Amino acid sequence: MNKKTIKILLLLVVVVVAYGIFRYVFFEPSGYLATWIRIGQHTRTVVTKRAFASSIPFTGALGGIAGGDQKCTMFATNAGLGGQWMAWLSTGNSNARDRIPDVKYKRVDGVMIAMNKADLVDGTIDNTLNVDEHGVVVRAHIPPNHYAWTGTHENGLWTGSGTDCNGWTSASSAVLGQQGHVHTTNAWSATFPATCDHSDSAGGLLYCFEL
Asked: Is domain 47-210 in CATH 1.10.940.10, yes or no?
């Protein structure tokens, strides 16, 4: 066997080995690329945020959207949940759907609300958002008080002028704010408007979402 033939055989061996490595890395189910793809897919699906309805009602004078956010974070902190939270509120300058991350949402008791943002705002949530920051069904013993301030349609957009208690700054009986029914899945965000002085007999809770 001459040197030329040996070189050709060695070159073929190198090509075969390189091809084998290439197939393993990029195509085999147990290869590195496939493994990292599976890890990436898994990582994208495990991001879950929590949500609850506040245990205490308010008038529509929340201190604006920022005041609602602060109240939600206060409830969460007091319940030992930690994290940063936002109130599900909209005004003419801000839609609730634009302020939340695109992740999976569960109530604080672990019950699924939505698989992602699109699922959350498709008109119907998977289960009622009627559990408070402690994991307790909100005010079940007081039938009238099943409503939360939202100013928001089920699609996450503002319900329009005259439905947000003047930007969530008014507690006037002459001003209206849109409310959602906490014990429903299809009218959870927009059931009917109530006067902004209501904070107990007709509702006034907050939906709180983790950021």
From this structure: no
Give the list of residues 6+ apart from residue 62 with CB closer than 8 angstroms, or none.
68, 71, 87, 89, 149, 165, 168, 169, 206
Q: Is the C-alpha dihedral spanning 118, 83, 59, 172 positive or negative?
A: negative
Separation of CA 171 from chain center: 28
Digit-by-digit pLDDT tens for the chain (211 residues) are 666 666 666 666 666 666 666 565 555 555 555 555 555 555 455 589 999 999 999 999 999 999 999 999 999 999 999 999 999 999 999 999 999 999 999 999 999 999 999 999 999 999 999 999 999 998 655 555 589 999 999 999 999 999 999 999 999 999 999 999 999 999 999 999 999 998 765 568 999 999 9
Q: What residue spans of the chain are helical by DSSP H?
A: 3-26, 32-45, 64-78, 117-120, 165-168
Domains of the chain, residue spans: 3-44, 47-210
Q: Which residues is 137 bridged to in the sheet?
A: 131
Q: What is the pTM of this model?
A: 0.77
Q: Do 180 and 121 meet the contact criterion of CB atoms below 8 Å apart? A: no
d(CA 76, CA 54): 9
Number of helices (H), then strands (E), in the chain = 5, 8
Give the dihedral sign, CA 94/95/101/102.
Answer: negative
